[in-house]
Design goal:
This protein is an alpha+beta fold and about 230 residues long. Helices cover about 30% and strands about 20% of the residues. It has one domain: ECO RV Endonuclease, Chain A (3-Layer(aba) Sandwich), CATH 3.40.600.10. It has 6 helices and 9 strands; from the N terminus they run αααββαβββαββββα. The strands form 3 sheets. Strands 1, 3, 4 and 5 form a 4-stranded mixed beta sheet that branches. Strands 2-9-6 form a 3-stranded antiparallel beta sheet. The chain has a two-stranded antiparallel sheet with strand order 7-8. The two termini are about 25 Å apart. The structure holds a DNA duplex (12 and 12 nucleotides).
Amino acid sequence: MQTPHPHPEPPQSLEQLMARANSLAGYNLGQLGEIAGLGIPGHLRREKGWMGMLLETLLGAKAGSKPEPDFPHLGVELKTLPVDRHGKPLESTFVAVAPAEGWQGVTWETSHVRQKLACVLWIPILAERQLAPAERVVATPLLWRPNPVQEQALRQDWEELVEQLALGHFDEISAHKGQVLQLRPKAANGRVKVQARNAEGQLVAVQPKGFYLRAHFTRQLLAEAFSLV
DNA sequence: TAATGATCATCT
DNA sequence: AGATGATCATTA
């Protein structure tokens, strides 16, 4: 096992990326934050993306806000996943923004959701809320591609949700829709608005939304990967 | 402003 | 407890 490097270059191969990811398992975030030379917050109330940014740094992902996979050369998206002591996800997982307009002609095959989920490096982190960030522990990583059953479930939800968006129901869709994929607010706050067209074609100001994976979906994909089957 | 990284806070 | 709706930091 290698020792984590503070600021590695982007990995040149999938094998190198996985070797790095495996080398982080077992460390707590206090140790890793120190290795990376980052400040370690006492809580994540104001730094909700801190765990994700830390893992990006240690794995050599491109920092910043580019609309690209975290490892473009490898086609791999990095996602940290907070889990409880049993490995059960504690939160849903943000996937992609849902544009308020322009859905006509968009298909699942070319969708950002499918592209983002084509190949994901999941880094589960024991992150129960009672644990301070420094005490949270990195678990065994999982390189995942949707199997046919999973992709079909994602596709079905995506098509149902996008149909509603295309029909002008952006502002009416709640998080209750979708078995594995849902739409939820995704904005700095409730005053942020974007323009959408309603069912009558009128321009209306709506709160931005994003696609999220339900926790039971990520729970199942972890279970399938790590169980005996 | 819009994209990245997500978790928080509250209600049921 | 679990899920929904709301929110926070940073960067280009």
